[in-house]
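User: My instructor asked us to take a sequence, write out its structure as tokens, and then describe one feature of it. I'm not sure where to start. Here is the sequence I was given:
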Amino acid sequence: MAFRGNPIDPGPLARFTRELRSLVDKRYRRAFRALRNLPRIEYRTLVDAGAHRGAFTDAFLELHRPSRVILVEPTPELAERLKKQFDERPGFLVVEAALSDTNGEANFEINQSDASSSLLKIDKRNSDWFGLDLHVARTIGVPTLTLPRLMEMQQLHEIDLLKLDLQGAERLVLTAAEAVLGRIAVIYSEVFFERLYESAWLFDEMNDYLAARGFKLCGLSNLVHARDGSLLQANATFRRM
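Assistant: Let's start with the prediction itself. The structure tokens for your sequence are:
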């Protein structure tokens, strides 16, 4: 039996099968490339925070078979869609809330491009950087939960993979989760190289915070550049050492 956080060797046959599948199965190949930096451990629990339309969880399920998956999404319309998509699967749960640094309620800004919606104020330069209309379309009140509270509610003693795609609110979640970071094996998070949202961490700030708490950077993927070539954001994988 593989313990959480310990590397696992799938064996030569499994490795060959995986490589063969990556040649013939397009969905699997896309998932494998997108998540290639995830450490090869046994993933039994996934918390997908900022689940949006479920694309990350869909890709993750191409590669792994967790027994518990909790998708956290504050936008009511998206949360309802996720419930229809995932709630009937054993071990899956959709929580309509925003992970944050408090338990209560907060304003959530839904932008014209809903993937950029956030608890934080968006920098107006984003529209120029991305060449998209990223103004705020509406503001709603949403429930907020800290990660420790979510783990308590769902009786999660450990999390094998915590995915954070919170448009800058990762800082809020991680600083309020210091007491439980030792119970997380891998963190997969969006990181910024420009301050795309007010008070959001830049990459080096997140990296320093997690390194001081026992995490090591495993890789960067999905790099996004501005129209002028400046590096804006990426996805970073951190593993507890």
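For the description part of your assignment, you could build on this observation: The mean pLDDT is 91. Try explaining in your own words what that tells you about the chain.
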